[in-house]
Write a structure and sequence with these properties.
CATH superfamily of the largest domain: Response regulator
Shape: elongated
Strand content: 15-25%
CATH class of the largest domain: Alpha Beta
Number of helices: 12
Strand order of the largest sheet: 2-1-3-4-5-11-13
Distance between the termini: 54 Å
Number of domains: 3
Largest sheet: 7 strands, mixed
Order of helices and strands: HHHHEHHEEEEHEHEHEHEEHEEHE
Helix content: 25-40%
Radius of gyration: 23 Å
């Protein structure tokens, strides 16, 4: 079916296209019955206004720009990158629910956004580059990390996630758990390795780690950590099937947990334990805080969460959205939507941190 237009809504509601436009833009100069018919027709047809055209034409409406680093979203067998794909998908859903629009361009084409009346900018990248922040001085900008150029920084509880992964392996009998990380996810791997090494130091144990790039080097990395005495395995990079198949072919019977969004693992037999960074929840909370910052207020939590203090965001401060991980051992858990995750998964705290 073709994308619905104002004309389709007008025909369904029995009014003119001009009336549809005025009503959907908030006009109350019509009867309650007419307004209800138009809104119902728009809902039934799943009509969405063209946010770019409306914002450009009227100077109103909310328009969010997204700089997408395609190195972070281009999926391969050895780098599934499901997190970023779901992060962008949830950004679109959240903005659509709010009646806003999003224009996404490749991060190396920032000039395409400069002529648009953007309200804010979101940098989608696992490895941010300084060039991504060229527009940050003009509009609120959200991205991953705590770069001073950002207005909103999205972070995760990597230490908590790593401790939970190690606890799972230790509960399965591991004494010397090792970690495998992907060369395709350098920043993510670095953060997990830092947390892993600190945790092993606290346990008075030497870290056992290796990096893989492709399938042959994955086998070499697996052999390396096993040769060094690893009796449990934490894998960062979402290559669950390849790791499991290699372990089977080499007769390695080790407890395994994989950092992944759990979409593939839930169908494996037996299921593979996963540690998710909650892509959809991260995007949902990013948009919630972005909306609050844009309105000049501190973040407000949804009704089902403890409210954060509402206050103006001071100059030279970063709003940090800390998205905790969720952990799933069973298939029934990994298949659930993150927003319906069990208590404790995906909790978020919002705070202001003075920048040096």
């Amino acid at each position: 079916m073709a994308k619905p237009t104002l004309r389709h809504v007008a025909l369904a509601a029995g009014v003119s296209t001009a009336s549809v436009s005025r009503i959907l833009n908030g006009s109350t100069a019509y009867s309650d019955d007419t307004i209800a018919r138009v809104k119902q027709a728009a809902s039934d047809l799943r009509y969405r206004p063209n946010a770019v055209a409306r914002a450009t034409r009227t100077g109103s409406g909310r328009l969010v720009g997204a700089l997408v680093d395609r190195r972070s979203t281009r999926a391969t067998a050895m780098a599934p990158r499901v997190f970023w794909l779901h992060f962008v998908d949830e950004l679109l859903d959240c903005l659509c629910e709010q009646g806003a629009g999003m224009v996404a361009v490749s991060s190396d084409r920032v000039e395409l956004l400069q002529a648009l009346p953007l309200d804010s900018l979101i940098v989608v990248s696992g490895q941010p580059d300084r060039s991504h922040f060229e527009m940050a001085g003009k509009i609120p900008t959200a991205g991953f990390g705590n770069d001073p150029s950002l207005t909103i920084g999205v972070s995760h509880d990597f230490r908590g996630a790593t401790l939970d992964a190690l606890a799972y392996l230790e509960n399965q009998g591991a004494v010397k758990p090792g970690i495998l990380t992907s060369a395709h996810e350098p920043r993510l791997s670095e953060l997990f390795v830092q947390a892993y090494c600190a945790a092993m130091s606290d346990r008075d144990r030497a870290p056992i780690q290796a990096v893989f790039d492709d399938e042959p080097t994955l086998g070499e990395a697996l052999d390396h950590v096993v040769a060094r005495g690893a009796d449990g395995l934490f894998v960062v990079g979402g290559v669950s099937r390849a790791v499991r198949d290699l372990m089977r072919s080499q007769n390695y019977e080790l407890p395994l947990i994989v950092q992944s969004e759990g979409l593939v693992e839930q169908y494996m037999e037996p299921p593979v334990a996963t540690l998710s960074l909650c892509a959809r929840r991260s995007a949902h909370r990013t948009i919630a805080v972005e909306s609050a910052v844009r309105d000049g207020m501190g973040a407000r939590a949804p009704e089902d969460e403890e409210p954060a203090s509402a206050r103006a965001v001071p100059e030279n401060e970063l709003v940090l959205v800390e998205c905790a991980f969720s952990y799933a051992e069973h298939r029934t858990c990994t298949a659930r939507d993150e927003r319906d995750a069990p208590s404790g998964g995906g909790a978020v705290q919002v705070e202001c941190i003075p920048l040096q």
